[in-house]
Amino acid sequence: MTAFFRNPFDRWAADGGADAPPVDRAPAPPSEPKPDAARPKIGLALGAGAARGWSHIGVLRELAAHGVVPDVVAGTSIGAVVGACYAAGKLDEIESFALSMTKRRVFRMMDISFSGMSLIGGERLRAALERELATMRIEELPIGFAVVATEVGSGHEVWLKRGPVAEAVRASYALPGIFEPVRIGDRWLFDGALVNPIPITVCRALGADFVIAVNVTADTMYRSHIIHDHHGEASGGVAEAPFAERRDSVVAEHLLPRYFHRRPSAAPNVAASMIDAFNIIQDRILRSRMAGDPPDATIHARHEDVGMFDFHRAKELIELGHEATKRSLPNIFAHIPLVGATP
């Protein structure tokens, strides 16, 4: 894939101030302006939202089509997944992966954990990430990038700006009780949405002058169910997932819906209760964080009828990202002086 982002490191050196020329000497000829001096450094904050995060792909595509190129990217949870792939020049790969997901394949990516730390081990997801991002480190990516995680026990907000990309991303999406926490250094980390669902502050810390936030959560909480009627789906000619089918994947396919899905009139089970509680907490924190440090522009890519694990609906979610970005372009261009760009 041809990368459509620019390297920000050549803009991070501070400009030296020039003294006024002596009155008895001709002033030095002005230096040529930098090509991008007309616009501020742009930061893109990609928010949490589980399956709805596939909308981030459409957002990135649409921004690029209109010349809006982020200099820094920060992500939380699914925003960290898509943001990392973008920063690494792997947007094509993550889009292909998203579009290949079917209802049945989603369950087969979820291996049952027997560690006692979570319901899902996440080894298949880890393998998929490491296959694409195995040798990459955050500090070596072509653009500034960081992800948010939460420290187990203390609740501290942790910004991961160095180290292996895949490991940091796994920590950022490790939903408590559902995915196993990730140990980095001497800390156990899990989902960053508990402390900073849309990392606007991280973008500013990375040097962004103008921050675009992407909100993929709905005003009303998304449903705690995963998927309906997964057994009846045909493959549709899509290539099989790159993981060998094992007995535990078949167990997961039959077992997980019982944990996550409930009828509206039924009492909540353990997993559904955890997810509902997590969603309520995330919503309150998101409202507070955005009120305290509002972005310069917000893209609302929200869908009321998408469940937390509806990863098989990537096509419509990516299109939703495109459409949401188009609606937000006038506000974005009102703040970013991009020469020749038209919404």
TrEMBL record:
Region entry Disordered, spans: 1-40
Molecular function, one GO term: hydrolase activity
Pfam families: Patatin
Domain called PNPLA: residue spans: 44-204
Motif (DGA/G): 191-193
Biased composition regions of type Low complexity, renumbered to the chain: 14-26
Presence of keyword GTP-binding: no
Entry superkingdom: Bacteria
InterPro entries listed in its UniProt record: Acyl_Trfase/lysoPLipase (IPR016035), NTE (IPR050301), PNPLA_dom (IPR002641)
Active site: residue positions: 77, 191
Biological-process GO terms, alphabetical: lipid catabolic process
Keywords, in A-Z order: Hydrolase, Lipid degradation, Lipid metabolism
Protein name: NTE family protein rssA
